[in-house]
Amino acid sequence: MRRILQRIAFALAAAAVVGWLALGANRGWTKTTVTRWEKDPVTEIDGPVVEKKFVPGIDLVAVCLTGALALFIASRFASKTKNRPVSSSS
Amino acid sequence: MKNKILCALIFTCLGATAPATPLEFDFKDPKGVNNVVFKTDAPLESINGVATGISGRVTFDPDNPGAVKGKIIVQASSLHVGNPMQKEHLHSDKWLDVAKYPEITFEVESAKNVKTQGNVTTADVTGKFSLHGVTKTITVPVKMTFLKDQLKARIPDKDGDLLVIRASFKIKRSDFGINPGQGEDKVSDDIELNLSIAGAAQR
Question: Is the CB of A43 inside 8 Å of chain B's CB atoms?
Fold first, then answer.
């Protein structure tokens, strides 16, 4: 049980950091849209184009790392005993 | 017959010498390019947003740009930021209260320091700025670019002129009753606004 919780904690922490780096390493807040700017050729006004895109911020990384830490701490209180295979009576 | 010809000549001469009528520009943009960008400082990153729900009418005379008049309206609910929780807070009754105060407006009253070079006019425009149910008279540096006969280049089946207005100015949220004196460590009192809009006067 302890080993399982620790593995989940490490996987969560690694996924959070790798995902954050892969999706742009945004050091701000998590965003679900990004704004792209396109210049209107006649008026020369840069007009906004809002696109749906998930960009994780450090708030999400912090939440995931806190969860991972909580799982790791919880694992210290979990029993070390392994699940024994169920013996068949046949 | 002579009288008719004389009358026609008089009317033609009057028409030629009469001052040009100010043009009325409609700022409801079918292309959704018109925008107001707002920026305010916050600890983690500055909060940047954009509003595109813009309408209003401005009368502008290319021969007398200082006589500009009109009103620009921004739908408060069109304010958008990338973080959904920030957007929810921004629209809520704790901040802009867009349900109660659906419009942000600027009504032009007068223009001073008017300078025109070619088709570009700069001026300090004074008007009534309304936000969050509070109206204050402010003066804003404005750049107006008159694009004669350019509407067709933008909307092919329509003839007319375009007027591009750009303005950058700062306001204090506390002046407009938006959480005055509260949370300034989280969201700055200063809000920077950048307006970029184009209006069309159809013929």
Answer: yes
